[in-house]
Amino acid sequence: MKVAKTCTGAVAALLLSTMSTSVNAQSQNNDSSRVAKLERTLSRFHIGGYGEAAMSRNFYSDNPDRYSLPDEHKNDPSHGRFDIPHMVVYLGYDFGKGWTMSSEIEFEHGGTGGAYEKEVDEGGEWESETEKGGEVALEQFWIQKSFAPYANIRMGHMVVPVGLNNAHHEPTNFFTVYRPEGENTILPSTWHQTGIDFWGRAGDWRYEVQFLSGLNAENFTSDGWINKGASSPLEFELATTYGTSLRIDNYSVPGLRLGLSGYYGHSIGNGYPRNKEGVDEEYKGVVAIGCFDFTYKGHNWIVRGQADYGYIGDTEELAYIYNRINAKSPYHTRTAVSQNAFAYGIEAGYDVFSQIRKLKEDGQRLFLFGRYEHYNPCASSSVKKKYDYHNVKRMAVGINYYPLKGVVLKADYSHRFLKSQYNNEPSFNVGIAYEGWFL
To answer: Is the pLDDT of residue 51 over 50?
Structure first.
């Protein structure tokens, strides 16, 4: 009996041990499976972004009348600013079989904010307060199907790659603390709209064609030309009229990229609500833009340049459109718009750390750079004289220090040269920026 009990106990212990080993093995297999599944998911998920922080000291007047009354504001005190020009978060996912998703959420100038407050000094009334200026925008959101490297199609909200600044707008792609002023003045920046995009690369050529919602002429201005034309204050993006963009880049020469880009579309009649007759039907407000740009990287130099020229048709008729806009309308343009605008510029920087072996091997870089640009959003003879303070020539010199890849500290001295009857505008700027993928 005792022997039987002992045998029974031994068998039970063996069974329990076997079951425990089996359970542990199954648990380990399940854990391994979950880990492998998580690794596969994370390998398809992408997180990245870029951001900039800047400080400026402007040695000229910030009075709104400094151009209409330049003599009265010639000796005004300087003023300073801190700013977060852009902070962008990239989120993307690879679904497999050529299907991918990508998005960019952009915070400009630190975002925006508002609040309700009870005003003690005003009898305890509730008031809506603007707490923070700036913007939060969905800069990109698209789904793409890739058939081959030379054939990709995407649909959604995307960057319009017209001009150097829009195609390469990350802060590591320009030397100055702030984005180059010329394109940033006359074109939307970063220009993003909803539409359909076909792009690809074959050999030394990359090409991209987009079908987009049209620009809105009611947002064109004298100081910014079409800069605000792609924005909409409504819950939807107006697409009564349409536009197309095209970009072609060539990489045949090592280290050199040459690019041509352009835009064509109608802008009158893309307001809300749409008039069934009158100027909306009779005129089109054609917008045509042509751009050339290049980037050279070699022999420790980086050189970038661009030239942009634009045309708007029926600008005289825009006055009739502006006159009928209700004062409470979010479309508040009241100024004349130039038929033509242009911007061109070039910058060059040399990496002095390339001559110091230890720093070069450590991956550190220090560029000394210079930049020159000339731009005018009011280049037409009909408005040139009235708004000739918008004709700006600008020079900047400075440094870019990269302690490691993706992080850059910037400093520059900038000087805007205006027509002789106005006061020139010098400034000193310091900034730090990053750009990269984290996962």
So the answer is: yes
What does the pLDDT average to over 395-400? Answer: 98
pLDDT confidence tier of residue 234, bands split at 50, 70 and 90: confident
Secondary structure class of 354 (helix, strand, coil): helix
Lowest mean pLDDT among 16-30, 41-55, 258-272, 277-291: 16-30
- pLDDT of 95 > 80? The answer is yes
Contacts of residue 429, Cβ cutoff 8 Å, sequence gap at least 6:
54, 55, 56, 57, 176, 177, 178, 398, 410, 411, 412, 413, 414
Which runs of consecutive H residues, i.e. helices, occur in 289-439? 318-323, 357-361, 381-384
With beta carbons less than 8 A apart as the criterion, state whether 194 and 215 touch: no
- C-alpha to C-alpha distance for 381 and 376, rounded to whole angstroms: 12
Amino acid identity of 360? Answer: K
The residue count for the chain: 439
Question: Rounded distance, CA 384 to CA 331, Å?
Answer: 24
Render pLDDT for 69-79 as a digit per residue (tens, 0 to 9): 999 999 999 99
DSSP secondary structure, 163-180, as one string: SHHHHT-SGGG-SSSSPP
Could you tell me where the DSSP H helices lie in 177-333? 181-186, 279-282, 318-323
Lookup result for tokens 């009334």: 125
User: 100 with 143: CB under 8 angstroms?
Assistant: yes
